[in-house]
C-alpha cells in the first residue's frame, strides 16, 4: 500500500493553514507526508489580512500543542464581543465571541500570517517534506493509489501516494483534477458582487481613535446603507488597528482589480464621507500614507460541492467549501477539517492490520465518505449564515436600512454565550487524544 517502506503515503497540495495543520497531525502517525506549496518561498510578515479565530479553531491548535505559542505572539488580542453600530454611530448591539469557561478560549483577533507562521515553524522543526514553488498539474487515480504530477521550480515531477489531500484553496488545482477523475466538470469560483478593501494604521494616527476602539471594546463593525466597515485592534500593545470595508462593486478582470490609488480613494470618499467618526478619518489617513497601500480583495465563492472526494483524493478547507469571509470562521473550519480528517486516518491505520487483503481501497473510500458526511452539514450551516451576513453588506434604501437595523437589534437582543455554543463549543472528535501521541513521540 505504501510508497515509503510500510508507511502510508500522503501528498498534500497546499501548505496554507489547512495543509500545514493536517500535515502536522499526520506526522504523529505512521505516515509519510509530502507538502506541495505553490508559493515560491515562505510568506513574509503580514502576508494575508486580519482575521477572527474562533474558540473552536483555537481548540484545534491546542490539539497540536500550538495554542500557547500562538497566544505568545505580539499579535493576537482576545475579544469577548463585537460591537455593532449603524452608519450614524448609534449602537445596534454587542455580539458575544466566546468565553473561556464555556468554550475553552475567547475569540482571537490576529493576523492570518501569525497562525500560518506558527504552523510553518512546527513543520520546519519536525523536518517535514515541504516543497515550495510546487503546483499540482494532473493526477491519475486507480484503486491502488493516486499518481500525482506536479511542477517544482519549472521541473516536472511525479509520485504515487495512497492519498492526495487538496488543501490548495478556492482556486484549487486539485478540485478540477479530482472531478476529472470522476468524469465530471468541477464548478469554478465566481464573483459574489462584493469587494473588500482594507489597511493597517497606527491607532495614534487619528486623534480620538484610541478612545473609540479600546482594549475592552476592540472590535467595532458598522452597517450602513452603502456598505459595511469593520475596524479592530489586533496587537496586545494596542498600537495598531486594521480597518476594512465590504461593499458592492462591479466585476473586473484580475488585472483591473489593481485599481489606481486615486480612483480607489475617490470611490471610498464618495461612499463613506457622511458616515460617523471614525470612518471618514480612516479613509483620509490611509490615503495620506503612501507606504501603506490599501489591500483589495474581491470576494469569490464556489457553489456547494456534491463531491469532496473521489477514491484516493479528498478536498479540505476552501478547496472543498469556500467559506465567505463574513462568518469569521474560514480559518477555524479549515483547522477543523484538518483535525477530523487526520482523526479518521488515525482510526484507519489503527484498524489496517485487521483488514482483509485487498480491501484497503474500499476502506479508504468509506473513510472519505464519512469525512464529507460528518463535516458538510456543519460547514454548510456556516456558509449559509455567512451569505446572510454578506447580503446585509449590500447597498439598500433608507427604509431597507431601517428594517435591516431593527432586525439586527432583535437578533442580537437574544444572543448570549450559550447561543454561540453551536459554533464555538464544538470540539473535533479525538482532538484531546493527540496530546498523548505527541508525548509518546517526545519520549522515543
TrEMBL record:
Q: Which InterPro entries match?
A: FAD-bd, FAD-dep_Monooxygenase_BioMet, FAD/NAD-bd_sf
Domain FAD-binding, residue spans: 8-385
Any stretches that span the bilayer, and where are they?
Answer: 12-31
Please name the Pfam families in this protein's record.
Answer: FAD_binding_3
Sorted keywords for this record are:
FAD, Flavoprotein, Membrane, Monooxygenase, Oxidoreductase, Transmembrane, Transmembrane helix
Extract the Gene3D superfamilies matched here. FAD/NAD(P)-binding domain (3.50.50.60)
Top-rank lineage group of the source organism: Eukaryota
Task: Name one molecular function that GO assigns to this entry.
Answer: monooxygenase activity
| Family, per entry | Belongs to the paxM FAD-dependent monooxygenase family.
Q: Under which name does UniProt file this protein?
A: FAD-binding domain-containing protein
Amino acid at each position: 500500500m505504501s510508497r515509503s517502506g510500510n508507511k502510508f503515503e500522503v501528498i498534500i497540495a497546499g501548505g496554507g493553514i489547512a495543509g500545514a495543520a493536517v500535515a502536522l497531525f499526520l506526522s504523529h502517525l505512521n505516515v509519510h507526508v509530502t507538502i506541495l506549496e505553490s508559493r515560491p518561498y515562505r510568506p513574509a510578515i503580514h502576508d494575508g489580512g486580519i482575521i477572527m479565530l474562533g474558540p473552536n479553531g483555537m481548540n484545534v491548535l491546542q490539539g497540536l500543542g500550538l495554542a500557547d505559542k500562538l497566544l505568545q505572539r505580539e499579535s493576537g488580542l482576545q475579544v469577548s464581543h463585537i460591537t455593532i453600530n449603524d452608519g450614524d454611530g448609534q449602537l445596534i448591539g454587542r455580539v458575544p465571541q466566546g468565553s473561556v469557561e464555556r468554550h475553552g478560549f475567547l475569540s482571537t483577533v490576529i493576523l492570518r500570517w501569525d497562525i500560518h507562521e506558527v504552523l510553518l515553524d512546527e513543520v520546519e522543526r519536525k523536518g517535514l517534506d515541504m516543497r515550495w514553488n510546487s503546483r499540482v498539474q494532473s493526477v491519475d487515480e486507480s484503486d491502488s493509489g493516486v499518481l500525482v504530477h506536479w511542477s517544482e521550480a519549472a521541473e516536472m515531477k511525479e509520485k504515487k501516494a495512497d492519498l492526495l489531500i487538496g488543501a490548495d484553496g478556492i482556486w484549487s488545482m486539485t478540485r478540477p483534477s479530482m472531478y476529472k477523475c470522476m468524469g465530471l466538470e468541477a464548478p469554478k469560483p465566481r464573483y459574489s458582487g462584493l469587494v473588500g478593501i482594507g489597511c493597517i494604521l497606527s491607532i495614534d494616527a487619528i486623534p480620538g481613535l484610541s478612545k473609540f476602539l479600546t482594549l475592552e471594546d476592540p472590535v467595532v463593525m458598522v452597517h450602513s446603507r452603502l456598505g459595511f466597515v469593520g475596524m479592530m485592534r489586533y496587537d496586545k500593545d494596542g498600537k495598531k488597528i486594521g480597518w476594512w470595508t465590504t461593499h458592492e462593486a462591479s466585476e473586473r478582470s484580475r488585472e483591473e482589480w489593481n485599481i489606481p490609488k486615486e480612483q480607489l480613494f475617490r470611490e471610498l470618499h464618495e461612499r463613506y464621507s457622511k458616515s460617523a467618526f471614525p470612518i471618514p478619518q480612516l479613509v483620509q489617513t490611509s490615503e495620506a500614507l503612501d507606504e501603506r497601500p490599501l489591500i483589495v480583495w474581491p470576494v469569490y465563492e464556489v457553489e456547494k460541492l456534491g463531491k469532496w472526494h473521489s477514491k484516493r483524493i479528498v478536498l479540505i478547507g476552501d478547496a472543498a467549501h469556500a467559506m465567505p469571509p463574513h462568518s469569521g470562521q474560514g480559518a477555524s473550519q479549515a483547522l477543523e477539517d484538518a483535525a477530523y480528517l487526520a482523526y479518521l486516518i488515525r482510526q484507519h491505520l489503527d484498524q489496517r492490520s485487521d483488514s482483509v487483503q485487498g480491501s484497503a481501497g474500499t476502506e479508504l473510500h468509506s473513510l472519505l465518505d464519512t469525512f464529507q458526511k460528518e463535516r458538510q452539514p456543519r460547514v454548510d450551516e456556516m456558509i449559509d449564515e455567512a451569505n446572510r451576513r454578506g447580503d446585509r453588506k449590500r447597498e439598500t434604501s433608507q427604509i431597507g436600512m431601517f428594517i435591516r437595523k431593527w432586525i439586527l437589534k432583535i437578533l442580537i437582543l437574544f444572543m448570549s454565550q450559550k447561543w454561540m455554543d453551536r459554533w464555538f463549543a464544538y470540539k473535533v472528535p479525538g482532538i484531546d487524544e493527540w496530546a498523548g501521541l505527541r508525548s509518546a513521540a517526545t519520549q522515543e
